[in-house]
Design a protein that fits this description.
five-stranded mixed beta sheet; two-stranded antiparallel sheet; alpha/beta; Glutaredoxin; globular; 6 helices
């Protein structure tokens, strides 16, 4: 399946967060939000990305834009990751890869000649209309959270 494109509707989802509370697309309707898809808790790049979004959490909160990290890790692992690094972003567990697959970010990857399935690091900024306003495929972590915040500041205000 190919990756969703800017302008596409955000797929429906209902996923547990790092505290076991369910987050749904419907509950977020009418407001913008960020979904950043990452491979695995507590790996260097994923940790740095979560810390960068946490550093900017007050800026996103001032815009009333919640930020959610999404990976296939289980809720319990997310909780440990959150506590270890004092993360301020909510982490959604997509163990069944429903949202990851719907976005087209659960893909075949290869390392050292070995193929495996994994998450293509990608971020989606969803507008208040429920459509993907901006998409960052194949994210490079340094400076990324700042770029997402900059795009979030440029979103049209909900009426």
């Amino acid at each position: 399946m190919s990756m969703l494109q800017e302008g596409a509707s955000c797929p429906d989802f209902a996923l547990p967060d790092d505290r076991g509370e369910t987050v749904t697309r419907d509950a977020l309707a009418g407001r913008p939000y960020v979904l950043y898809f990452y491979p695995k808790d507590d790996t260097s790049g994923c940790t740095q990305e979560a810390i960068d979004f946490t550093r900017l959490a007050p800026d996103f909160a001032a815009l009333d834009i919640p930020v959610f990290g999404v990976s296939p890790d289980p809720v319990k692992k997310h909780g440990k990751f959150r506590d270890k690094h004092e993360l301020a972003v909510r982490l959604l567990s997509d163990e069944d890869k429903v949202l990851l697959s719907a976005f087209g970010v659960w893909v075949e990857k290869s390392m050292y000649g070995r193929s495996y399935m994994g998450v293509e690091r990608t971020t989606a900024l969803v507008g208040s209309d429920g459509r993907i306003a901006k998409l960052w495929p194949k994210v490079k972590v340094p400076g990324h959270a700042d770029a997402v915040l900059s795009a979030a500041r440029d979103l049209p205000k909900a009426s």
